[in-house]
Amino acid sequence: xxxxxxxxxxxxxxxxxxxxxxxxxxxxxxxxxxxxxxxxxxxxxxxxxxxxxxxxxxxxxxxxxxxxxxxxxxxxxxxxxxxxxxxxxxxxxxxxxxxxxxxxxxxxxxxxxxxxxxxxxxxxxxxxxxxxxxxxxxxxxxxxxxxxxxxxxxxxxxxxxxxxxxxxxxxxxxxxxxxxxxxxxxxxxxxxxxxxxxxxxxxxxxxxxxxxxxxxxxxxxxxxxxxxxxxxxxxxx
Length: 237
Fold this sequence. Notes:
- This protein is an alpha/beta fold and about 240 residues long.
- It has nine helices and nine strands.
- The chain has helices at about 15-25, 40-50, 65-80, 105-110, 115-130, 155-170, 190-200, 200-205, 215-225, and strands at about 5-10, 30-35, 55-60, 80-85, 135-140, 175-185, 185, 210, 230-235.
- Strands 3-2-1-4-5-6-9 form a seven-stranded parallel β-sheet, with helices on both faces. Strands 7-8 form a two-stranded parallel ribbon.
- β2 (about 30-35), α2 (about 40-50) and β3 (about 55-60) form a beta-alpha-beta unit.
- α1 crosses α9 (about 215-225) and α3 packs parallel to α5.
- The relative contact order is 0.14.
């Protein structure tokens, strides 16, 4: 095992995921990118290399628990995993409103909670053994603000938020940090932002509803560094 600190970005995309990679990479972290497709890995790695960041890319669908654990083990073998950012979110669909939610819909959205728990369970023992590390989970605004139109998604958002902030409390005095970025808005450069920009007839005008991923990544770095709060809320809806 080397002493290289690694920041793992799970669910990397062109918006917040890459901003996180750049921000932690500037602090000297080796960066490990994980996404379900390798299609854009070449571009991501070239961009990071051009900025002097040591980065590597891995392919794993987070819903494949065995594959995700295998990739995280491979990354850990090359250097201590000091930071995990978990960013995957369910694909936005026209969900039934909360007043029409049934049990099947509620159960289905929790399939997006288990991968986060799996990722944490994979890396937390090593962090606790070393007495250092950080876990950051991205979540949705419906976890703190009633948004009936999102239906069952509000349940999984609330579960992820509560998981992160309770994990933070449970890790007190261990040297390991956990927190959540609660995001309400379109993240610039992200895939949803691109789609919404090209289809305002469906999504409406996006002016005033966007968030700069570099600003979010800076806040994430400060959360990890200072460790005086378990949550930051970013709202542009």
